[in-house]
Design a protein that fits this description.
By secondary structure, the chain is of the alpha/beta class. The chain has seven helices and eleven strands.
């Protein structure tokens, strides 16, 4: 039996049928609408268009969005003018451009809403450039999500043509694109940074969530150039526990410096 769109079917909304559909939703691994055949207690077989969702499946960072390969449109989560709160440029005014889409999946990420690119509308890079140009500070921080999922050549070239310096914060998990005045590499254990990103990093910022992250930091320090600035930053929820350890570590290993999330202390974005 084929159920057509809008057709009423006796028994389709029975408790038994709802249980079957619920089980199918939980087991699905495809986020897109598809045709799926299954049997119900009321009828032998149905073919229905179903929309599946599952929190247990790692989905690609971009799915339904048709993002141009030339980077002229990007999934923009948010953009705002604020004070840089972390790393080398702490305390400086900057315009932040946060792009949606990330498959690195840090469990302590404080912007998990950025992970799914489909939640964020495609925005013309020209409009982002225009918005950034309206503010007094001529510095932009491109972050995410993981911004290097996308081709950032067009966006950064346009910003620099306006006399705006371009900074990026990235896990380094994807190939380097864009024209940058400053690259902050913040590697994650879940996906190792690519060699071309690490080699060009101006700043290595390692988030310290537990003691093993000191070893992880030293491992990544071997991937960057000798001129790269080295920072250890306590993960916000573990800052009381980790900050004293970081202080001791930096005092014994002075090639490292401490980075704090000062914007959270200041209660600004």
């Amino acid at each position: 039996m084929i159920v057509k769109k809008g057709e009423k079917v006796k028994g389709f909304f029975s408790p038994e049928s709802r249980k079957v559909r619920k089980k199918l939703q939980l087991k699905s691994t495809n986020p897109f609408i598809q045709t799926f055949s299954f049997g119900l207690p009321d009828f032998p077989t149905f073919r229905l268009p179903l929309t599946f969702t599952s929190k247990s499946v790692n989905l690609p960072p971009t799915m339904a969005h048709q993002i141009p390969e030339d980077g002229t449109q990007l999934p923009l989560m948010e953009e705002f003018y604020t004070i840089q709160g972390e790393g080398f440029h702490t305390g400086k005014a900057a315009y932040f451009i946060r792009l949606g889409g990330c498959d690195v999946g840090c469990h302590w990420c404080d912007v998990k809403e950025s992970w799914d690119a489909e939640l964020h509308a495609l925005t013309y890079a020209d409009q982002i450039i225009e918005n950034a140009s309206k503010h007094p500070s001529k510095a932009v921080v491109v972050t995410g999500g993981e911004p290097l999922i996308y081709n950032l050549d067009y966006l950064t070239a346009g910003l620099q043509k306006r006399g705006i310096k371009t900074f990026i914060e990235t896990s380094g998990a994807y190939p380097l694109s864009g024209h940058w005045d400053w690259i902050c590499l913040s590697p994650k254990k879940f996906k190792s940074p690519m060699a071309n990103v690490a080699a060009n990093a101006d700043e290595l910022k390692v988030i310290v969530f537990n003691k093993s992250d000191f070893i992880f930091a030293e491992q990544n320090s071997k991937l960057v150039s000798p001129a790269c600035k080295l920072y250890l930053q306590p993960e916000w929820s573990k800052s009381k526990e980790m900050t004293p350890l970081i202080v001791d570590y930096v005092m014994n290993n002075p090639q490292w410096e401490i980075s704090l999330q000062t914007h959270k202390y200041l209660n600004i974005p």
